[in-house]
Amino acid sequence: MAASLEDSIDRRVHGNWLSWLVSQQTFWVSVAAVVAFVVLTFASDVFATQQNLFNVTRNFAFVAIIAIGMTAVIVTGGIDLSVGAVLVLSGMVVGMTMHTGTSIWVAIPLALGASLLAGAINGFMIAYIGVPPFVVTLGMLSIVRSLAMVLSNNRMVYEFGPDQPKLLALGGGFVSVSLPFVDPIRVPSPVLFLIVLLLIASFLFRWTRWGRHLYAIGGNERAATMTGVPVKLVKVSVYMFCALCAGIAGVLEVGWLGTVTTSLGQGMELSVIAASVIGGTNLAGGIGTAFGAVVGAALIEVIRNSLILLGISTFWQGTFVGGFIIVAVLFDRLRARSANE
Amino acid sequence: MAVLELARVSKHFGAIQALIDVSLRIEPGEVVGLMGDNGAGKSTLVKIVAGNYPPSDGTVMMEGRTVAFHKPADARGEGIEIVYQDLALCDNLTAAENVYLGRELTRGFGPVKVLDYRAMFKRAAELFAELKSETRPRDLVRRMSGGQRQAVAIARTRLADPKIVLMDEPTAAISVRQIAEVLNLIRRLREHGIAVVLISHRMPDVFAVADRIVVLRRGVKVADKPIAHSSPEEVTGLITGAIETA
Lengths: 341, 246
What we know:
The structure holds 2 protein chains of 2 kinds. By secondary structure, chain A is mainly α. Chain A is built from 15 helices and 2 strands.
């Protein structure tokens, strides 16, 4: 009798996956993305074409890759405003290094190393010196972007030496996936990187001590410290992880564009944070998933693309993206309030 | 041999003297009630024993060896477990994840260490059953009652097979029934030879379960005697200063 009572309580609390599903913000954002997709397919002749979908998925991959790193940072209760600058630094390091004729196998590790260094400095200042993340990463944004200008003397770089085809293939290439009954689908290579990163990050967040410690720090940093979680090391590592994501996106984006200028990634931090928040990450920390961040990025890009296709001035994009951020946070607040009552 | 001994421990923060020359011996399997008004130095004493900060003066000994704790993990390594007043729980994690916070169980797949949720849920469920608590391992702490949270925090200390458990106001914010359960748990810890330091404002709880009572007032130890030789009236006098020492 007692056991069956336990069981029925357990079922009520955990068993109903449907009620769990509809309580997830990620679910509703996925629904919104799918609805937008369907509506646009009918509203615009261009949207559902191979070429447009190819562009949409590639464009959103860059934001989504960084949004995964940003989600990890926000989950710990932090923020990283320097991602756009780290992206251009990474792109510039890989571009300038290859411009001198160096191998891509040297240039990419150098670029990612520079990104990791910027992340490590962010993390060190935040974890060990106690400077607020907002301040440190805002400063780092300015420093890193200026370093990218110093490095290139603010020129446009578009000659990448003997390994240029490899770099262009890395960012601009695609893989054909053949399916029954339809034409082969071309998957842009940045999307492949995104999928691999998404799988790795989802695994890390859920199935490793490091991942659980991210959530513990965001939930109650003092409790994490007192129970022996290496809070400072985890914080340094999470800013390095975020910077690494930005660095990877930087290399891929240069490969796609075939040029690198210092204006690359300007204002990108807003899109990235928006993707993460729209995907269900709580800015107060402790809640968020890698998958949510990717879905959030996808929704933003679909909306952005649809505005263009529907002939609405691109000047309106910021209004829509900003509105989405506010609505997402508003939903979260309303849900938290109804949960408390 | 005393499991924990403090010898003339002092702590000051700038000009503020939080603890002055406090000496204390705790034997295995002994329950010591530590009482005192707000600001008497109870929390400071707990934090020194927990390894949150070192004493300004004096020594801490475990089983006769002088120990120096630089961080909480050092104290835990010596077999000291703490239940904090605010319980130090993460609301966004499950009960089992909180119990195992900082010492999660993993299974190795080559170099990759994967969290062993099944083992953690199973062991946490056993611990909650032992505590006769209705807490379920998979529930989020956010949705729990005060008593359930207490059970999570106490279950956490049981993982490590500790020598001594310090409890900071464990009965302050829970139901009467849960208080009886917590006191029973303290008795069970004693049966296992684990020493318990019970920091509490609640006189009835201390007198129900403690073997010995220690009273701090303004950073000074003013009483240290078997509970049988004291009374709630005397302790109240000692706490407020109506009685100088006993």
